[in-house]
Specification:
2 strands, mainly alpha, disordered C terminus
Length: about 150
Amino acid sequence: MKDNLKRQRNEALAIPDGGSPRVEQRVAAADWNAVNAALDANGFATMTGLLDAEGCGAIIRLYPQDSRFRSHIHMGRHGFGRGEYKYFAYPLPDAVGALRTALYPPLASIANRWNEALASSRVFPCATPTSSSAATRPGRRGRRHCC
């Protein structure tokens, strides 16, 4: 039964030349109205199904490989509670890069809508930044947003 449901879900998201659906297709198929509504109501939203179990497992298996990360944060040391997290080093793993590229435009649109409502002049470009420096560069004041 479980395998049948997984097969049906993958068939519904299948790409024309076979294989599993690409991250870009999964992001595009997301219910962005629900994401917007959840963000407006709660300040956060969850999205399921962006990576399959194999993709999640591949990312999890990277965690012990310190060379894949540029920074390792121990939350307790900074008074943030318990736990830890790491920032990936460049180049990003393929799945992470694909998620970043696919999620950036719709999330930039949401951020621009929020900034407009808050009377902030910060505008996020609608195209995905292509380098690590572009990802952290502040938006240009007065620039009209395209998303």
